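Handout, page 2. Input:
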Amino acid sequence: MDVRTCKKCGNLFNYLSGPPLCPKCRDEMEKKFQEVKEFIRENPNANINEIAKENEVPVAQIQQWVREERLEFTEGSAITLSCESCGASIRTGRFCEKCKGNMSNALNSAFKKPTVEAPVKKPKDSDKMRFLK
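Output:
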């Protein structure tokens, strides 16, 4: 059992996974996320500071949701992120599609793939050569 202190309220709770928040604070954060998501749908041209101010959420939290790919900036949005690998402009996540592909290929090539060996055929008694005396 992993007991931790909630980063938001300071209460102790049984930690399972994800951010170190107690279930109550996690539920509140999820409600805030849904409010932000709805606000963005209704106001697609709002900038990140307006979104944060109107929903009483820190800008850093909105950026975290974007990095987690829970939120995505629209195609024509003035707000963009930079790929952490090459610096290309992206709308969500941490890496651009090209860098994701490169990392995936590098990871796949790092592990040796099992090779299929031809089964060894054992001779049967009927396949043996017989000599007559």
